[in-house]
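User: I'm curious what two different proteins look like when written out as structure tokens. Can you demonstrate?

Assistant: Sure. I'll show them one after the other, since each token string lines up with its own sequence. Here's the first protein:
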Amino acid sequence: MTLGGATDGDSWRARKAYGRRLENFEISRGADLPQDPVISFGPEDLRGVVASHNDALVVTATIANYDMARILIDNGSSVNILFKSTLDQMKMEGFEFEPISTPLYGFAGHDIPPLGQIVLPLSLGHEPWWVTKMTIFTVVDTPSSYNGILGRLALQDFRAVASTYHQKLKFPVGKVVGVLCGD
């Protein structure tokens, strides 16, 4: 689980404003709510999954037109993370990071200062059921066995539901449910 980052602002003033917005938020009566298809998991979702596993949900997704394997789905993480080594492999040079100063905690047992944030297109799923959204990634320069981490920000933005037991990530694509299987 990763905590911190600039998810609700990179200053005390921004975080207070975010808290006030949450206090004033009122759920609408259904007309403004997305009409997503029902997402569920059943026995058919266990086909191809080894019984009695303890595996994390690790998927392949497309980030900035680059098929990227070893992306950890972590609904405990408050930010989406890309590692500098991953950006180097993607040859993502010339991009400037939006500076942030809020460190990440719980990541490696100590605080990690981020290099900044970058906004890139993230695509989940496969033709014809895939969806792409511009996604904020916090970039860190630390070793990892993963290329990236998708946290609550991306999961909520895609309205995705993860099941480590079924090794699947499901998300609405129009009126159908897209599926991304764990690697």
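Here's a second, unrelated protein for contrast:
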Amino acid sequence: MIDVTDVNDNAPEIFLKSLTDSIPENVPPADINDNPPAFEKQAYSVYVTENNQPGSSLCSVSARDPDWRQNGTLIYSILPGEVNGIQLSSYLTVNGDTGTIQALRSFDYEQFRSFKFKVMARDNGSPPLSSNVTVSVFITDVNDNTPQILYPVIDGNSFMTELIPRSAQGGSLVSKVIAVDGDSGQNAWLSYQIIKSTDPGLFKIDLHSGEIRTQRDISETDTMKQNIVVAVKDNGQPTLSATCTMHLIISDNLSEVPELKDMAYEDSSSKLTSYLIIALVSVSTFFLTFIIIILGLRFCRRRKPRLLFDGAVAIPSSYLPPNYADVDGTGTLRSTYNYDGYLTTGSRTSDFKFVSGYNDNTLPADQTLTLRKSSTDFDEAFQNTDEITEFQVRSLTMELK
């Protein structure tokens, strides 16, 4: 039997495994931020109507990033810039999450008609990657400007006049109204029309140029002073307009012109007259109202209630003051005048203290003093009274029969 001895004639074998074979299948590989954001459009164009509301949305920009998780999360921002010398941040803002761009103020077509700015999209990777896109904003016009008249120019109280010779024939150019409009397009198309004239059949105006010409030959009977009111309208919606007055003088002699200084004040004088009439009526109404109130107050103060009596009220003797005596107790005098006199004792004076009227049918005989019609009868009633020095008539009744 032969023994076979093993000889080390085989080199060791090395087995290599890939890195992915050692990672479990449920563990995803780590992402690398190697893709910058890409916008859906190469550039954006936005059309905005002027006088837009602050806070209104202009447009939205959108970008995509194929990276995973935070490497693909995007944040939008507007790059610094200026619009008409003002910082862009005072005009626009962008939502960092959605990319919606909003206006912070109203745009005016007359100030600037377009502008551009850039929006940046940046991911949240490490290091962060970003890309930019250009947004162009075009402002469209709105009919918000009234036509401005350049000629004729009204400067305070001065006015411009046009001198027309009396030899002017029909179709002669007299003057021209010049106006401009700050709007654009059809909003700036102007039309001219005469709305008031001293002689409606003497002048006409071109609808588009504003040239004023004569419709016929000027005659000697035409008024020397001619005023024409012209309306200038634009073609916008709604239509805006302005008016002016042309002062024309038909004369061959310049020396007559200074005598017409009051021509420009005819319309203002009529308005001033209306204001004066209104003021006069208002003042007169106020004055009359004031007088009526004063008279009413005085009437109320002077007015006293009237008491109608069928007869005098009887005064019992218990209501008479002490130390008074009845002069005559008959009380049966049927004359026209009846008097009650109450006299005091211990006085040397003879004057009336109080007089009041009464009806002779209401007082008893023991409480009345009867005096005669004549003064002699009145003296006889008091000639035997020595101790009575002061008397006072308590009531007086005058009864006319």
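A detail about the second structure: The mean pLDDT is 75.
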